Amino acid sequence: MQVSLTDRQQRILWATIRHYIATAEPVGSKALVEEYNLSVSPATIRSAMGVLEKSGLLYQPHTSAGRVPSDSGYRMYVDKLIKPEDTLGRQVEQLFTERLNWDDWSLEALLRGSAQILATLSGYITLITIPQTRTNRLRHLQLVQIDPGRVMLIVVTDAYETQSVLMQLPPAKLGDTQPDTEIIERELQILSNFLNSNLRGRSLLELATLDWSELDREFEQYAALLKTLLLDLSRRTAKPAATQIMIRGVAEVLRQPEFSELQQVQTLLHLLEDEQDQLWSLIFDWSEQKTPGKRVSVRIGAENPLEPMRTCALVSATYHQGSVPVGSVGILGPTRMLYENAIALVESAADYLSDALTEPA
């Protein structure tokens, strides 16, 4: 739901979230008057907080309590009310340069050191995926009609490994009548030529980078389906062993009041220790990194598909070797997170690892 706020309501939402992040206590109008220069009366603040609550951005945990941010409130805070902390980003880059030694350290030691620095600075769990160095390149792609409603995408690598994915034809192409087989086969050949022209010679990790705007308008109805198939294929092909995530900072995050309940801690630890295959796919989500102008992915509360993370926020950014995304840096903590700092931390770490991996030996 799209929510439109006045400048005053935005300032009050920002102040409410900042106060809650700092204190972990429900926020009342008196606290905002005393600690933030909002230049309005407590009655005006209470009225604005009531509007924010009706809009689903704040809620009251108890009828006599102040307000706390909802997942939607945090989402607006991240999308509209903050900017990444540039000063912190520069400090982190300097710290990485001073404490880490790319020339003398092994890759594992470098990642371990990076994860520990981020965990210490953020107070949250740091997750860094080990770089995927798979070098298989695409040799050939072909779309083949299996029956009137289904098509198979076949991918052959330069190592002559074959992957295939089945797809249903778009509804608009099927219509109410039996589709013309010859027309569809001709269109599939044109699409196959387009895919080969744009993807041949590129790595499996680059399947998500195809510029679909180059596809002729008459084939646009195929684009969304093909993009989904290619993303799925790239994930399945590159998915590593579960041990390939560097995790640091569990002790730090357990000090947060949100993790005072034993059951919640146990489910989160089970995810980190025993279900890293699910976690890996969530951290290293290339589709989100391909959003124009978006370097960092932020998943808040219920936006996380894994149940143990529904009370958490995950901030992550990919790092690259050259132009190829090979891994991701993530910070996992409670939704009551100082997001501008977390964004700056993962961006700086991802930039450092990208530069280190890309520098010529």
TrEMBL record:
Organism placement in taxonomy: Bacteria, Bacillati, Cyanobacteriota, Cyanophyceae, Gomontiellales
A UniProt-annotated Pfam family: HrcA
Family matches, as HAMAP family: HrcA
Coiled-coil portions: none
Domain of life: Bacteria
Protein name as catalogued: Heat-inducible transcription repressor HrcA
One GO term of the biological process aspect: negative regulation of DNA-templated transcription
Keywords: Repressor, Stress response, Transcription, Transcription regulation
Biological role stated in the UniProt entry: Negative regulator of class I heat shock genes (grpE-dnaK-dnaJ and groELS operons). Prevents heat-shock induction of these operons.
Family: Belongs to the HrcA family.
Record PANTHER family: HEAT-INDUCIBLE TRANSCRIPTION REPRESSOR HRCA
Organism of this sequence: Crinalium epipsammum PCC 9333
Domain Heat-inducible transcription repressor HrcA C-terminal: 108-343
Any one GO molecular function term: DNA binding
